[in-house]
Amino acid sequence: MLLYHRRDDKKKMKDKLKSNSKMTFSQFIKEFIQKNEVENQKLSHLNEPIKTIQLESLRRETSIEKRRLSDLFSVMTVLNICTKICSQCYQWNSIDNIHNALIDIGIKLEKKAIRMPFEKLFETGPSPPIGELTTKIIEVFVYFGERKMSLTLIAKLLAPNRERVKKVLRRVYLTSYFLEQFDIISHGEERGIYQFNLDLNEISREVYQNLQNQPSHEFTILNLLNRVDDTYINSQRMQRQFLLKMFFIHPDEFHRRVVNMNFHPFFLREKLT
To answer: How much is the pTM?
Structure first.
């Protein structure tokens, strides 16, 4: 009976796509998420195993390019909406996993930031995959705490050199499209400006609280604090935004006074003023 309903759902989706040639990829994504959320809740209620989603089968059912489906699943894997279990096989988790996925990305970035110079922190290859760019775009918003950011600026941060900025920017736009489908970011009123839709203060607070609870000499300042409050978060944010402006507006001065002296971002504002 259960198998019959699965086939029936597939047939309905295929028929709908065929009958509605104007159905956009965005509409498909939203309906696909809803369908899998409902189906997984039913399977969980029945104590049935979660079904495996096969990319090639989905391509045949929907007639959507495999490349586009692959990009979609790369993004969903980063957000822990699904898990890759074999070459082209995925298991659905939950759309509710997004928040914790962002926290994990923030924690890993803070640890990396201690050991890595700023100009290498967000750098990607010349043609970064969509999954990597998903992580990087989230990292930039969370690290600097900027609710609105220019995708061009993000591409400049990510590109390994100036010659690669345009190519990286095209892929940043593509990745941003996918992040929009999950309401993580949205297009602002100005061209090329996107805003982060989730609470950056809450995310930062949870990131720092997690780091505070981890036994590591690298986070002694956090460990000395009784609690991570908005004052601490805003202080970090101001220092990092100052660093970002210095990096773009006065790059030569940035490299002379910051990179060569290996200052940690936490102390930058005091050292540079």
So the answer is: 0.83
